[in-house]
Amino acid sequence: MNISKYEQRVLHALARGGAIHFERAPNGKIRAVTCVTRDGHLLEDCTTAVFERLKKRRFIRSVNGTPYRATRLGISSVRAQPDNR
């Protein structure tokens, strides 16, 4: 599957145990996202556009208002890296 460099970086962080925290606007739409790695570092590559694209392709999902995490499809779509095998 054709995944951009920024989407790959975000999916790698999520596959290793990271999460995407979000902030909602008063109308209920998501207005800001923050990608946090397993170690607690912030990932700058996670923009709202990258988040929307990953969500549209069903690579990430949230259950009952929890932070977004990688789905099985998202983990299987990301290319293998030495730290992610």
Task: Please supply descriptive tags for the structure shown above.
YjhX_toxin, 3 helices, two-stranded antiparallel sheet, UPF0386 protein G3256_18565, 5 strands, 31% helix, 3-stranded antiparallel sheet, 85 residues, alpha+beta, 22% strand
Nutshell version of this structure?
The chain is an alpha+beta fold and 85 residues long. It has helices spanning 5-15, 48-56, 72-77, and strands spanning 19-24, 30-36, 42-43, 60-61, 69-70.
Reconstruct the topology from this structure.
Layout: H1 5-15, E1 19-24, E2 30-36, E3 42-43, H2 48-56, E4 60-61, E5 69-70, H3 72-77
Antiparallel strand pairs: 1-2, 2-3, 4-5
Describe the structure.
- This protein has 85 residues and is α+β, with helices and mostly antiparallel strands.
- The chain has one domain.
- The protein has a three-stranded antiparallel sheet with strand order 1-2-3.
- The longest helix is centred in the first third of the chain and has 11 residues.
- Strand arrangement, largest sheet? 1-2-3
Q: What is the count of DSSP helices, taking H or I runs of 4+ residues?
A: 3
Residue-averaged pLDDT: 90
The percentage of residues in β strands lies in: 15-25%
For the sheet with most strands, the description reads: 3 strands, antiparallel
Helix content range = 25-40%
Pattern of helices and strands:
HEEEHEEH
* CA radius of gyration: 12 Å
Outline type: globular
DSSP summary, beta strand count:
5
Provide the structure class.
Answer: alpha+beta
Head-to-tail CA distance between termini: 19 Å
Low-confidence stretches: none
Number of domains: 1
Family: Belongs to the UPF0386 family.
Organism: Roseobacter ponti
Pfam families: YjhX_toxin (PF09857)
Protein name: UPF0386 protein G3256_18565
